[in-house]
Structure formats: C-alpha cells, structure tokens
Design goal:
Dihydrodipicolinate Reductase, domain 2; 17 strands; homodimer; 36% helix; alpha/beta; 11-stranded mixed β-sheet; Rossmann fold; 6-stranded parallel β-sheet; 435 residues; Alpha-Beta Plaits
Chain lengths: 435, 435
C-alpha cells in the first residue's frame, strides 16, 4: 500500500468536503487504487471555527508555507478562492515542486496561461476537474473519454443558481425577484448573486471548457456575456406556448471561420435533453465527429460534489496517470488553435416579440425589414389584439447576429412600434433525436 | 512528435470506424496530445471486401501473428467479436507484450479474470472503454472521474435495440413484432436479435460495470436476466396512465447485505432523466456518496461512437497514463469486494395488474394476501368493470422479491382470478430532484 500524504489549503466549504470525503472513503480508495491517502496538513487563516470534523493527527496551520516547504508532501489541494492571493499561493507551490489540484475556476480563467507555463517549467502539474460543473467529470471526459474526437460544440447549463431561478420562474410562474429570494433561502444563491446571475461565473467555466475542448486560450473579453436578470415571465410564457424552455447556456461552437463563445438565455425545444435539467443540476452537451452527441449531468456545485472532483484529481495525480497527460496535452498554450469570431458574426435563430399599434401594414413593414436584413421568418404568431395594441411574435431561421440587431434598430424606429422588440436566441445546434 | 504505430485486428464495422476515425482526426490528435498515431497493419480473415477507405501504406494481412510478432507495434486494437477465437488472439497478444484495446464485451464478461491476470503477469494492459455503452465514456467516468467515490448504484439503458423497440411501442403504440421489424429495417436489430432483446447483451455490460464500479467479479449466473419480449402494449399503456415509462434497465445496487444485479423491464417515473432517453441512445445513472446522482448519455453502439472509445483508449495507452491505472486498480480480481445477493432477496416496488371476476370480496382477499406477505400497497386503481370482469392495478411499496412472488402464487390460485397477475418492477432508487 503506497502512503500518500497531501496538503490542503483553504478549509472552507469545499475543503471541508474534501477532508470528510477522504475520511469516509479512505478504505474504499485504498482497496480500489492501492493508495492510502491522508491529509498531513491543512492551512487556513481561520483555524478556530469548528467544521464539525475530527481531523485526528492532521496538523492545522495558518501559514501555507508550512505545506509548501514540507518535503513529505507532494500533492496539494489548493482550495483558496479569489484571484490574487490564490495566484501567489499557486505560484509558490509550483516553484516548490508541488503538484496542485484546484477548484478555483476564476483563477484559471484569468491566470491559466501563466500558471500552466510555470507548472510545465517546474515539471509539476495542475489538475482542475473541480473547477467546472462540480460532480460532473466533464474535464476528464473532454480530455480523455472523448480525447481523440474533434469537438464541434460544447454547450450546457453550468450555473446552478441561474438554472434554479429560471426553473422556479418556469414551473411556478414566479417573478425573477421571488425566485431569487427562494434561491437565497435554500442556500443556492449568495447574498450578492451578481457573479452567478450576470453570467460571469458561467463565462469562467466556458474559458476552461474552451481550453480543453477546443485548445484555445481565450479571455472574458472573447465571450459575449448576458445574464438572466432581464428575463421575465412574459418571455417564459411565450416560449412555453411555442414549445420551448428558457435556459441560461454557456455555448462554444466551432464554425468554419472560428469559435463562437457566449453566455445567454437560450430557447431550447422542450424535448431537448437540457430542457429537463431542473433546479441546481448542471448538464453539458458535447457534439463531436465520432461519438456524436453526448450529455453529462449532475450536481454542479456544493461541498461533496466538488470534493468528488478534487479527490478524483488527487488520485489521478498520485497514481502517476495525470503527469504525462498534463505534460502532453497543450492546455492554455495556443498552437494553431481556432480564434474567436466577433459576436456580431455569430449565427443564431431568434425569437422576438414586438408590440405595435393595431393598424394596417404593420406586419408587411416589419417582415420587409427582416427580409432586407437577410433574415427569413420560420414562424409568426399574431394574437387577437386587445384594444389598439397588437403583439406579434416571430421565430427566425438562423441568421447573423449583426443582421438581426440591425433589423431590431430599424423596427424600433417605426412610429407604430410601441415596445422595442424583445428577443431570445435559440441554438442552431440540434441534438439528434434517433427513433 | 512521438510516432505511435498500432496494429488492428478485426476489420469489421468497428474496425472500419477506428481506421477512418484515426485518419480524419490524425492531425487533431497530434496537435492535442503530441502523438502521431497511425495503423501499421490490419489483420482480418476477409482482406478482399472494399471498406470504402483508402488505407494508404497500412499493410493488410490474414494472419494476426504478423501483428503480434511485430516488435515495432506496441498497442493493438483487438476488435474480433465472439469468445473462443478472440480469447486465443488476446492471450497470444498479451504473451507477446502487446498492450490491448478492445471492444469485445462478451469476451471480457466470460473471460475477464483470466485475461486480466495474464495482462498483469506480462506487464501489459487491457483497455475496454468501447465494451460498454459505445460513445459514452462510462468506464473512464467510473474509474477516474468518480474514482474516489463509493458507488451506491449504477443503472441505465445499455442496449439500444431494446430501447428502440420499447420507444416505438411507447410512442406509436406499435406491437412488439412491428417495433422489432422497424428496428431491423433501420439496422438497429440483427436478423436474430436474441442477444439484445433477451437481456444477455445488457448483462455482459453489467458484468463490466460491476467490475469497475463495485470491484466485484461476477458471472452471468449472478444476474437475474429478463428481456423485453414479454412486454405488451397493455403494460405500456397502464404504465403511462400511472405516470410511468417502461424501460429495459441494467441495475446494480449495493445493499447492506451485498450486490443486487439484474436486467429487466422497469417502470420509471416520467420525470426521471432516463425516461426521456429514446431510440437507440444509451444512458447510465450513477449514485455515489460524494457526487450524488450523475447521468451519462450518448450513442451506445455504431461504428463511429464505438471507434470514439477505442481511439480514446489508444491515446490513454500510448501516453503512458493507462499503464499505472491498470496496474493499480483491481479490475476482475476479488479482494473483499461485495458478494451478490440472491435475486429472491432483492428489493423492488411492483406494479401489478390482476383481472378477476367482478364479485364482492375480491379486493379484500387480494389485499389480505399482499399484507400476509409483508407487502404494503402504495396505490390501487380499479376501473369500472366491463361486463363480468374487473381489472385491478396495484403499485406496492418496496418489498422482497420472494414475498412478492409468493403473493403472486397465492393470488393465482384464487378461483375468481381470471388472468394470473402481470407485473413490472419499479426501482426503489430515486433520482433526487432538486428545486
């Protein structure tokens, strides 16, 4: 039995899950893998708070250097959040030869290239399964399980908070604020939920998925990011009538002219497997040229699901399997990988809703603006007008973002238009349904 | 760039997919992994048939020894089906130091322990992602992604032919024979579909999932196997009325007293993620003590999805990542792993339908038989009788298989019972629905 003594930095929610998970599964892991994994030292600024765990002979320290300078420790679970301090810790660990397992997505999203270069330079490694979609092993799936396949698209629900809010709005017809408060009460949303609901957290994850799936180093500026805060019940109800569900998706699509990267509320046909992913669950769809469509589903956050990913990475690192992968695979190092195309050049289908005065010629004018902008209409609904206003809905065929936005500007200027056109994008990437 | 020259034995459907997949993705794989993978030699009895591929400078031979004895070839994709010949080839390859990647599930199900022992003895390895659920990387998910977690249950749809037939019966109300013929026409069922529809193919896969997920070496005799041939439209329609969908599942559950292993038609609540897996798609749900519930979805068969798994294994083997895993993980070697509990001791919920004469006291007698056998009733529907017959449906709470079968025998003997009770099991393993 090989003894593996690790260090752990950051004894918060995820850290506590990792410590407890390794305790509970210690014998199981030893029986399965031949490694007896124990935590020699835990570092955290707060070493007073009772985490409800008996940590036995594990040392507690406020100084992470105690771990970095301990030659008996080869692997460190680095679970400190945020960017600057976490980056300093990571750099120090790498320069002291430690192999790192981390859950910090924001750090890798902003500092990935430098950190990975340093890790390679010091013959170390950084494993980061826990950084994306918690308990779903999507990083290893893209890297290993689908590792020989050319990826066409990766898209999915990678923020549980947003998905919980949209699920509540859809199922119980709650307004946004009520759904958000519900999420707060259940512990699914922070007091300040900005990072989750504005799409930034999903964008961090998309940067990592892009690094693995498309081998492209991208930054937040490369991604069009729209949160869920502007979605209202009217949108959701209209979508339902048309057979769609509104989900906030992270989307990466490799087109002939480059990569499309975006986070935005998206219409999904009700029978799409992602449409039934509810509450705080996450799910990622992948489409590639050999396996075709695959989907990976599970809990995207929380102490134990994230600990599951951290522990898997610790085992892979300890077994010597991860080293060659990290050395060979070119994460975060551009080598002829596809570049990102401007958002204005991306392709979507659009659902749009226009409120106009109920006078003759309205539909003719609007449709001719669409047509002048190379947009063809897939379907149109005009409901019986209430009083002097008419609500008209269109579903377009796929078209360029710039063309659609141009049409919106022109329609806005029409004197009979009461509300500017509201719209939600729909993917043009289908999920093949066999049978 | 490291050159990797491999051998391939068995130039059938999967072999052709592997050859074509490696051609199409050669540059992609090289850019991503640093390995230039080419096929040096292909062996097949039939070297005449045109596979529609230009194999360039790859040699074709009828004699697999040409590959086994070629010292330049380190890795062999062994894609010959069946058991005896395939076993001879595998043994010969292992004894000549070749590392093997295989898609042959039946072979591993029957000869796994010997083959794995031999591989260890000769410091070789056998990778077998392609043996289970085609394009879904479920083997590496269980081994690596969820590798530190104690698995509670693995259950899913692992036979696309059965799932296609049941999907057609459910969606279009086709009788079994018509759905089977449809499957034949589309190439989803063999002319003799026995292995698929009688549950044996699913059982082969369950043996492999059990070896990885529960570390237990089991044989076909340890698995209760029921196919889909007895399912009729009445069952499917009744299930629908109760909010259920009928799916053929492979189920492994670790109970306190051991492992439950079974293949049978199963009722799933309509909102369960597996219920919407249609056509030839496969999906496997896993429940463990850290990640909780996860699901993995994709195409379970076919030339390219299976090639995806073969190619992933070739890369893992070539990179040196798979060697330490194979050496450390105790596949197919019992070491205190859980034993299988007899089917009579397994726990299910049961849907049952009884046709009886419409006379007073029928329900009282039947329910007292259930109660005498420790079975409590969760719900009951009795429809208005047509003429002199009454159809009564029960859904039980969970109970022992033996108790339920005993109750069935007693109910059968009642003189007012017209048709013996028909029944379908439902899982007592829930899929947590958050939100």
């Amino acid at each position: 039995m090989k003894q593996v003594k690790i260090g752990l930095i950051g004894f918060g929610t995820v850290g506590t899950g990792v410590v407890h998970g390794l305790q509970v599964n210690r014998k199981h892991i030893a029986d399965t893998t031949g490694f007896d994994i124990t935590i020699k030292t835990i570092a955290d600024i707060d070493i007073k708070t009772d985490r409800g765990l008996d940590i036995g002979s594990t040392a507690l320290t406020q100084d992470y250097h105690d771990i970095a300078n301990d030659s008996e420790i080869e692997i460190v679970a680095q679970l400190v959040g945020g960017i600057d301090t976490a980056n300093d810790i990571m750099m120090y660990l790498l320069k002291h030869g430690k192999k790192i397992v981390t859950a910090n997505k924001a750090l890798l999203a902003y500092k990935g290239p430098e950190l990975f270069m340093t890790a390679r330079q010091y013959k170390s490694s950084i494993a980061f399964e826990a950084s994306t979609a918690g308990g779903i092993p999507i990083i290893s799936v893209l890297r290993d399980g689908l590792g020989g396949n050319s990826i066409h698209s990766i898209y999915g629900i990678v923020n549980g908070t947003s998905n919980y809010i949209l699920s509540q709005m859809t199922e119980y017809n709650y307004p946004y604020e009520k759904a958000l408060n519900e999420a707060r009460k259940k512990g699914y949303a922070e007091e300040d939920p900005s990072l989750d609901v504005n799409g930034d957290d999903a964008a961090h994850k998309l940067i990592l998925l892009t690094a693995i799936g498309f081998r492209s180093v991208v930054s937040m500026d490369d991604i069009h990011i729209e949160g869920i805060t502007k979605i209202n019940q009217t949108d959701i109800n209209f979508a339902r009538e048309l057979g769609y569900t509104v989900k906030s998706l992270a989307v990466g699509i490799l087109r002939e002219n480059g990569l499309e990267l975006r986070i935005h509320p998206t219409l999904l046909p009700r029978e799409h497997p992602l449409a039934s992913v509810k509450g705080v669950f996450n799910a990622v769809c992948v489409r590639d040229n050999l396996a075709g469509e695959t989907m990976f589903y599970g809990k995207g956050a929380g102490s134990y699901p994230t600990a599951s990913a951290v522990i898997a990475d610790i085992i892979e690192t300890a077994s010597g399997s991860y080293g060659p992968k990290f050395a060979n695979l070119c994460y975060f190092s551009d080598n002829g990988s596809p570049s990102v195309i401007p958002f204005s050049e991306t392709i979507s289908k659009f659902y749009t809703r226009i409120t106009a005065k109920d006078i003759p010629g309205v539909v003719a004018r609007i449709t001719s603006i669409f047509s002048d902008n190379n947009i063809s209409i897939a379907s149109m609904i005009q409901k019986e007008s209430t009083g002097s206003e008419a609500g008209i809905e269109f579903m377009t065929h796929k078209c360029r973002e710039a063309d659609f936005q141009n049409a919106v500007q022109e329609i806005k200027k029409l004197d009979f238009v009461i509300d500017p056109p509201a719209f939600i994008r729909a993917l043009d990437v289908g999920f093949e349904s066999v049978g």
